[in-house]
């Protein structure tokens, strides 16, 4: 049974807020925005993107279940943002270029997270990686 629109909206809001908090913890904020404003903008963009994904790819999310879905979403987003956007800030220092490159790297990390959670990436990883590591699921 598909979840109600309220449940989907609340879950999308939570995932969008999580996206905003993870991304703004790593990405240097633009000088023109306050920390709260930067987090709000990134969270809003994350909410809209996740809501669209939840609307169009509901079956993939439902097959994971909400607990596993949230864990996979957070884990893949966190690792992706830290691995892709973190070193950019260290290598380039501060400035507008650093912020733009880090936001682009965060967008790539979000795309990877969307693939894992909404486009069958979790199943692909499990069916390909688990046998090679000797893990039985």
Explained architecture:
The longest helix is centred in the middle third of the chain and has 27 residues, at 66-92. This protein has helices at residues 5-26, 35-56, 58-64, 66-92, 96-118, 121-133. By secondary structure, the chain is mostly helical.
Q: What spatial form do the alpha-carbon principal axes imply? A: flat
How many helical stretches?
A: 6
Uncertain parts: none
**What kind of sheet is the major sheet?**
none
Say how many strands there are.
0
Q: In what range is the share of β-strand residues? A: under 5%
What string gives the helices and strands in order? HHHHHH
Distance between the termini: 26 Å
Helix content, binned percent:
over 70%
The secondary structure category is mainly alpha
Write down the Rg. Answer: 16 Å
Mean pLDDT, nearest integer? 89
Q: From the structure provided, what is the oligomeric state, counting identical versus distinct chains? A: single chain
SSE blueprint:
Layout: H1 5-26, H2 35-56, H3 58-64, H4 66-92, H5 96-118, H6 121-133
Can you give me a brief rundown of this structure?
The protein is an all-alpha fold. 83% of the residues lie in helices and 0% in strands.
Key traits:
83% helix, mainly alpha, flat, 6 helices, 137 residues, single chain
